[in-house]
Amino acid sequence: xxxxxxxxxxxxxxxxxxxxxxxxxxxxxxxxxxxxxxxxxxxxxxxxxxxxxxxxxxxxxxxxxxxxxxxxxxxxxxxxxxxxxxxxxxxxxxxxxxxxxxxxxxxxxxxxxxxxxxxxxxxxxxxxxxxxxxxxxxxxxxxxxxxxxxxxxxxxxxxxxxxxxxxxxxxxxxxxxxxxxxxxxxxxxxxxxxxxxxxxxxxxxxxxxxxxxxxxxxxxxxxxxxxxxxxxxxxxxxxxxxxxxxxxxxxxxxxxxxxxxxxxxxxxxxxxxxxxxxxxxxxxxxxxxxxxxxxxxxxxxxxxxxxxxxxxxxxxxxxxxxxxxxxxxxxxxxxxxxxxxxxxxxxxxxxxxxxxxxxxxxxxxxxxxxxxxxxxxxxxxxxxxxxxxxxxxxxxxxxxxxxxxxxxxxxxxxxxxxxxxxxxxxxxxxxxxxxxxxxxxxxxxxxxxxxxxxxxxxxxxxxxxxxxxxxxxxxxxxxxxxxxxxxxxxxxxxxxxxxx
Length: 500
Prior knowledge:
This protein is of the alpha/beta class. It has helices at residues 26-34, 57-69, 77-87, 96-107, 149-152, 204-213, 235-242, 309-321, 428-438, 441-448, 475-481, 486-495, and strands spanning 48-53, 89-93, 128-129, 137-138, 141-142, 182-185, 190-192, 200-202, 218-224, 247-253, 269-275, 282-288, 291-297, 352-357, 360-365, 379-384, 387-388, 402-403, 406-409, 413-415, 419-425.
């Protein structure tokens, strides 16, 4: 009996460089390309650009589609491939390594002018460019991408991660006189900013903004979903995206491992289609555990983008009854003016106020408190900014949405910026009832809809309605108050684990 041999696609077998630069599996690349009007692949004049190519998978799959789509118009296959590679398919690599890999994927040779290339070019690059450029430092930061000079100014012999496409004010300089119909790809997501190990600045929005400057007819791109709620460097980008009526489709994965196996990206991943000639509502497709739920709706309904189509109806129902948000009771970031590294004195002294920090407690002078002075003598609830368990569903598909610490803070106590502070109540019972409310599945489900990372902030409470805290609240009481259906209750409880 003849044995079957396994011949995998080599681009499925490449290890990712990091969670910042994720290679796109061929299957996912094709799903992204499926969003485009397929007649584009039957037009010998359609031009495609991947300005952040890594493995070359998008360009390779585009070539395959054009090869099939132009078969009748250009019957000779060698002539057809020459036409596609010289006139229709273009790329800009993010590093020297990926430039070689992309050319190998598209031209079957790392050098486009070698004897092994399936289409001969006059240069080694062909139509897949790469140049090792330098950052432009201004006051310790790159003026184009915000990279830290202390981290990335390391000589020409090392990779600079100064990505060509976003290190210019004129992105049309790479292919002068070219008009691209389609820009497609999966850009780098972020880069270290020189802070602690987890500290990084987002980059992907810069690639989106730069791509739009080229005025394509279609932009089809994979990016992290963190832009839904904004955050560091993303608030203006979020506002622009939510008001952009040219976005016709968003495919959303709350769990990044469903589209990038083995890759955990906090907040999940999405890919979207932007169309120059389209203006209207957006088709939102949620994919979770293989199931798809699609709804057509406005991106601008709320100040953040609520990713879940099922959650939208619950939020709308709650807002019809209560439109005052618990976020109104949340103090601003760093509520009392003490940074995380400030610990206070080890022992109490006359007139001191207790300072709650991540390392325990210290003591500070009341006169040194520069913010929220009126809250010092009230009861408040504090919870850690970082969410325990991350913003990613577990193997059962459920989220924790649990702060690692939540407690009532008594009068004459304040907290460092490690904590979110909510309340300003005169009675301890009110603060205790608020704390129990925050631990309900109902409240934590609504928090999840405004979060796209592990960090909890004031905006995370914008969909959580404020309650009368003269008495405690349970999930059952809240479900009844807002008239949630058995299906809506089941959805909430399938998403959120109960707190211990």
